[in-house]
Amino acid sequence: MIFFRNSKRQIDDVDLNLEWKERENSGIVVVATVLVIGVCRKLTWEARVGNGSIQRYGPHQTHRIMSAAVDDVAPLLHLYRDRDTDRDGESSISNEIPSLVPASPSNGTDASTPNQRLASLDVFRGLTVALMILVDDAGGAFPSINHSPWLGVTLADFVMPFFLFLVGVSISLAFKQLYINQPPALVPSTTVQKIPNKTTATKKVILRAMNLFLLGLLLQGGYFHGRDHLTYGVDVGKIRWLGVLQRISIGYLLASISEIWFVNNIMVESLVDFARKYYNQWLFAIGLCFFHMCFLYGLFVPTWEYEAASLNLSRSGPGTQIVYCGVRGSLEPPCNAVGYIDRVILGEHHLYQHPVYRRTKECSVNSPDYGPLPSDSPQWCFAPFDSEGILSSLMAAVTCFVGLHFGHILLHFKVDVKHFIKVTVLLQWMGMNALIIYALGACDLFSAGLQGFYWRSPENNLVDGTEALLQGMLRSKNWGTLAFVILEILFWGLVSGFLHMKGVYIKL
């Protein structure tokens, strides 16, 4: 627990410089935010004045220190301080669009403080990336942690909500336009807070969302075939338009636009003021929910057909399959409005061709794992379906708004503090470079590249050889796979730690 000590210096003489406590000792801010169970780990902040003493602030001022410490956020869940130079040559903080590459720290006595990061967000982000690698690579060995085939929830089903929640928290910190209720005397003399131009900020948000969407299209559109496939390339007529990063870009865009345009210019001094300031955003989120529910339960889904490329062991060969619907409000795989909208707007060839409902009891004798079709399997088992489709992505964006308002709470209200840094430093490093780990690790670009170097046969490569070695040592294929995945997560943690020590942070 860190306590703020009294200082008898006059406020007008305060030269407030914020820095992470971890740069001096072992203290750092850690907030482990678990959206599902509503648990909030607490934040640690330290404010130092010019003579090295600690200034004490009242309950309505602690959030101001937090506000000064965290100013910027990257598009894919990164927090950095982007410093510009104003006309007078003074260092200023840009809140328009943050930078992913920190400014180089200076050893000069009058230099501005190094880039600040909200460690709790890094830790939670790193935990989410590690969880994604775990469920993607070990889900085949342990179907219970893999995505639920249709109804229900498993460990893997928390990954996307966690990412979207983190995006929302980041946005709330990125688009602070002013120090919240901050007396001018408490604002650092070397810092000038910019009030961003809304139109310019909107353009940059749209550009950043487009870049994120295009990156997702490259990684998940079908061009890279992943591990165990030493090929690449995609038929443009069958490219998959939507995916994980595309969904994040949609949530980021909607939440950012609402943060730029829908926040009222009200000083928050009570819960009533807090509600008045942000109620437009709440109405927007509620409107998205209403829009989703109207289409989900009100849209009529007619009978449709698709071209089945392969019907597995228990059925006849390829051909046109007819799926009989003619219903409204169905939540089952074949006749829901989510799939219908995607088929009409995107086309069946541009959807995910291996939907998760192939692991349902109706479509797999090995359910909840993949397997041969049962003898009485329905016609829709091999129909395409995109779990990151248009309508579902609009609803998923509401999770960004949940994180957005959680960030507002961090900014406006005092939070008690505790810190546990040493046990989470690996996750913190991973959170600092989540984008590169997602691309190389979670999307299997690195492992697929390693598999390209083999001895005589493609099966004799370092990746498969290491996994087979662990399976032999543990005398279990499943537990050997789990050990391999844990080793993979540790590897990426060390890689991200190396990048952090070199000051390398991949920006979009």
Q: Pairing-aware structural class of the strands and helices? A: mainly alpha
Please outline the major beta sheet: 3 strands, mixed
Give the rounded overall mean pLDDT.
Answer: 75
Q: Strand share of the residues?
A: 5-15%
> How many strands appear in the DSSP assignment?
11
Q: Could you explain the architecture of this structure?
A:
The chain is mostly helical. The protein has a domain at 295-386. 41% of the residues lie in helices and 6% in strands. The chain is built from 13 helices and 11 strands. The protein has helices at 62-69, 119-138, 159-174, 198-220, 244-261, 271-298, 337-345, 390-412, 425-432, 434-442, 445-451, 462-474, 477-501, and strands at 17-18, 33-34, 39-40, 47-48, 83-85, 91-93, 192-193, 300-301, 304-308, 319-323, 327-328. The chain has a 3-stranded mixed beta sheet with strand order 5-6-7, with no helix packed on it. A two-stranded antiparallel ribbon has the order 1-4. A hairpin with a 5-residue loop joins strand 5 (83-85) and strand 6. Helix 3 (159-174) packs across helix 8 (390-412) and helix 4 (198-220) packs antiparallel against helix 5 (244-261). The protein is globular, with a radius of gyration of 25 Å. It starts with 16 loop residues before the first strand and ends in a 7-residue tail after the last helix. 40% of the residues are buried. Residues 84-113 are annotated as: Disordered. Residues 117-274 form the Heparan-alpha-glucosaminide N-acetyltransferase catalytic domain. It comes from Malus domestica (Apple).
